[in-house]
Amino acid sequence: MDGPGVPTGTAAQAARDITALPLPEWLASWIDPAWLQALQSLAQWAVDAAGAWLALAGTAAGWLAPAIWIAWGIGLLLLLLTAAVVHFLVRRFAGNGVGHRMARAST
Questions:
Q1: Cα-flanking dihedrals φ and ψ of residue 29, to 5°?
Q2: Residue 11: pLDDT band by 50, 70, 90 thresholds?
Q3: What are phi and psi of 39, to 5 degrees?
Q4: Is the pLDDT of residue 63 over 60?
């Protein structure tokens, strides 16, 4: 195991296991088996091509989760700051509402 995440090679082995799954009988009438075989061979090629990167998936999971939470927190703070600024600007430019009350009273 490289880090706190997935053991080395587990992601690649899981992807290989998925590509070896047979087509369920109930799905055979909906999907051409030759098309599925081509799709499985494409997935197998992709797994083999990305084998080195999949080995890093466990290591990436250790730092990626905190990075996503930090980005989420920054986004939340930016949304709250934007809401506060808009609230301040609306209150500042709307004044005390005298014009709005006078327009409503004249109708």
A1: -75, -15
A2: low
A3: -65, -40
A4: yes
Ramachandran angles phi, psi of 96, nearest 5°: -95, 5
Helix and strand counts by DSSP (H, E) for the chain:
6, 0
In the block, residue with structure tokens 């995440």 = 5
Higher pLDDT, 3 or 101: 101
CB–CB of 61/4 below 8 Å?
A: yes
Tokens of 61: 């999971």
To which residue do tokens 């609306």 refer? 90
With contact defined as beta carbons under 8 Å apart, do 54 and 8 qualify? no
Q: Are 40 and 90 in contact (CB under 8 A)?
A: no
Q: Would you state the structure tokens that stand for residue 11, as one six-digit string?
A: 């992601």
Buried (b) or exposed (e) across 47-57, using 16+ Cβ within 10 A?
Answer: beeeeeebbbb
Q: How many other CB atoms are there within 10 angstroms of residue 6's CB atom? A: 21
- For the stretch 72-106, pLDDT in tens is 999 999 999 999 999 999 988 886 655 555 555 55
